[in-house]
Every structure is written in C-alpha cells, then in structure tokens.
Amino acid sequence: MVLRPATDDRIPAQPAPPADLALGVAALAAPPIASPVEVAGVELVDEVLDLVTGVRHRSLAVDDGPASADRPQVLAEFAEQDALLRAHPHWLAPEVVGGELVLHNEVSRWFYRSAAMREWRRELVPGASALYPVQRPFEPRLPSGAEVDALAHSIFTDCLDSIGIRTRAQVLREVVQQAAHAAPEGVLGTTRRAAWVSLACGAAVPVLDAVATLEDTPGADPHLHLVDLDPAALVFARQLATERGLVEGADFSLLERDLVTGVVARDRLVDELGEASASVVDAVGIFEYFRDAACVRLLRNAYRLLRPGGVLVVANMLSDRRELQMNQRGIGWPRLFPRSSEQLVELVRLAGLPLARTTVSTPTDGIYAVVDVRR
C-alpha cells in the first residue's frame, strides 16, 4: 500500500507529514485487517491510504468476462459518437412516447439502428431486465423474447457502459469475499444464519453471482433479502434464484418495498429486519439515482442493518468517466447523479460512518466507483 495524502481540487492540499509521522497517522487511521485474499478476475493495481481521512482508495484491473476481437473498433466508434454529442449540447436524449421510441439526434439513431436495440430501449429500459443482456451478453434473446442481433451483441459485449456494469459487479463480489475472509468467525454464517440485504436488487444477478462464489468460504451462507419496488424485477429475481437451486423462504426472501419510505425518508426496513441483522447490505444499483441528502440518509440507515464485522457496499457512476454524454443523451439512460470519489467520501462522512473503515475501489475502465464501509 502506498501511504500518501489524497488531494481534492476543492480543498488546498496540506504538506505531507514526515515519513515517520505518516506511518503513525496511517496506523491510527486504518483498522487492522486480514491479509487480502486473491479473487479471480480482480487484480490490485494501486492502493493509496488518505492520511487525512483514513480512507483507502484502490485501483483495480477487473476482467469483465467476454470481449470480442472488435472491441477496439467498437470503443473507438463510441468515442467518436460521444464527441459528436459534446459538440452539440442542445441535442436531446431519446424517449419513449406512447410506446414508441422517439430519437432526437443522429447519435441516438446510430445507436438504435437495429430492431433488437430499439426493442431493448422501448420495452426494457429502465427496468431490471434492461441490464440482464449486459450482464449475460451471450444470451441469444432479450428478456422480452426478441432475438439479440449482431449490433445488440456488440454493444452488450464491448461498449464502455456494458463493461462498467460487469466490472462493478465483479468488485462487489471481490469486496464481499474480502469481508468474509477478514470478518470475525461466524459473521457470515453461524447457528443464526447470516443475511444479505440487497436494496433495489433488480434481478439480483450480481448478488447471486457473488453468493455463488462464497460456496467455498467456510460458514458463508447468507440468506438473501431481495428488496425492490418493482414486482416484475422481483419475479425475475425469483426465477434466476430458483434456477440456481435456491429455495424461496429458506434461502431468499422477496420484499416489495419502497426505499424512499422504507430506508431514505424513514427507517421502516431497519424496524422490519432488525438492527444489526445483516452481514452484507448493498445498494450498488440505486445509490447514484438519489440526491446527496437522500444518499446520506440511505447510508445511515443501511449501516444500522449491519452486524459487527459486516460490510455495506454502494456504487456510483464517476463524474469524470468517459462517454458520459453517450450514456445520458445518446442511449438515454435514466437521469442519475455522477460523483467523484471525493464526493462519495464526503457523503460517507456526512452520514457519520467511519472513514477509517471505508474503501473506494475503482476499476481501471473508470466508469464506476464502488464504496464499502465495514462495521
């Protein structure tokens, strides 16, 4: 680990302390953790400990799985289209009106030039099913039943946003494995079975993938509480969980709940599930859709769900990512709030969570940051 102060352009950088003092500050700021375990597909590139806050910042090389021989060409084409959008800031995003896809600019017309892509936008976005072909790009059909054509397969496999969705999921898996390795004995499984609460779980593909990798971890067998407002998403999650051999009631529960009333505005979900009842709480897919004040309340109440030794995991699209205009005005993905790593750390601080137990992990593709806070 590199020990150096992280800087923020908004705050004047302070002079670095002498080396011996820096080591002392680091020792005080960072709680002792077990030696990290190697997780397939995730490699540490760099790790920096912020001596001011105690937050660890990691850069990770993450294998997103599938990649076609055409990926360099696909990435270059998307970069050109994003540049075109930046040159025309008045161009509007596509929208679905009366069940029909309306394309307002030439970049959107380029992106949605195949039948499968038009159906994907018209029928699946913004539901949980929209991410499934990105998470599983070799599936021959969309969840709506349409055949995945060559253009759709290329986009789902090789564009930056697709890569970022998969690397974000891989980091969630890695964080949970590291937490299982470092946690006190029994945190992820005892006579009182551990729980994983997934907030706005959607189809729960990343959660199910992560749980599958815990099978070789002694005692790690959490019951899944899959929480979402969308009943169609929960039906899809039930189908996928059942296909993996999980039994509803015994291995997972479906909770149709509104996060705004249950976790953000109030703490109803904490009352329902119980304070300190979960070993893992994640809000990986929803955090970036909330404004700052709501994020602070979500962090605070979600953290209350954690048992000692547990981990809270959230993710957010980065404000300095490449091709943000493509995401928002070319593809027309629902509005979200991109943030910097520094802004995410500030939200953790405002929520009153321990910064010295906080890690910000960023895959080298630079699309998302994943923040985990240990109890």
Q: Give the topology string: H per helix, E per strand.
A: EHEEHEEHHHHHEHEHEHHEHEHHEE
Shape: globular
Distance between the termini: 22 Å
Query: Could you describe the largest sheet, including whether it forms a barrel?
Result: 10 strands, mixed
Number of helices: 14
| Proportion of helical residues | 25-40%
CATH superfamily of one domain: Vaccinia Virus protein VP39
Low-confidence stretches: 1-34
| CATH topology description of one domain | Rossmann fold
Which key features would you list for this structure?
375 residues; alpha/beta; Rossmann fold; two-stranded antiparallel ribbon; 14 helices; disordered N terminus
Please characterize this protein's 3D structure.
- This protein is an alpha/beta fold and 375 residues long.
- It has 14 helices and twelve strands.
- It has a domain at 165-319 and 346-374: Rossmann fold, CATH 3.40.50.150.
- Strands 1-2-3-11-12-10-9-6-7-8 form a ten-stranded mixed β-sheet, with helices on both faces.
- It is globular.
- The two termini are 22 Å apart.
- Mean pLDDT is 89; it is low at 1-34.
Please specify the SSE layout and strand pairing:
Elements: E1 2-3, H1 19-29, E2 42-49, E3 56-62, H2 71-87, E4 95-97, E5 100-102, H3 106-111, H4 115-124, H5 132-135, H6 150-158, H7 160-182, E6 195-199, H8 205-213, E7 223-228, H9 231-243, E8 252-256, H10 259-264, H11 268-273, E9 278-283, H12 292-304, E10 306-317, H13 324-331, H14 341-350, E11 358-363, E12 368-374
Give a short summary of the structure.
This protein has 14 helices and 12 strands. The protein has 375 residues and is an alpha/beta fold.
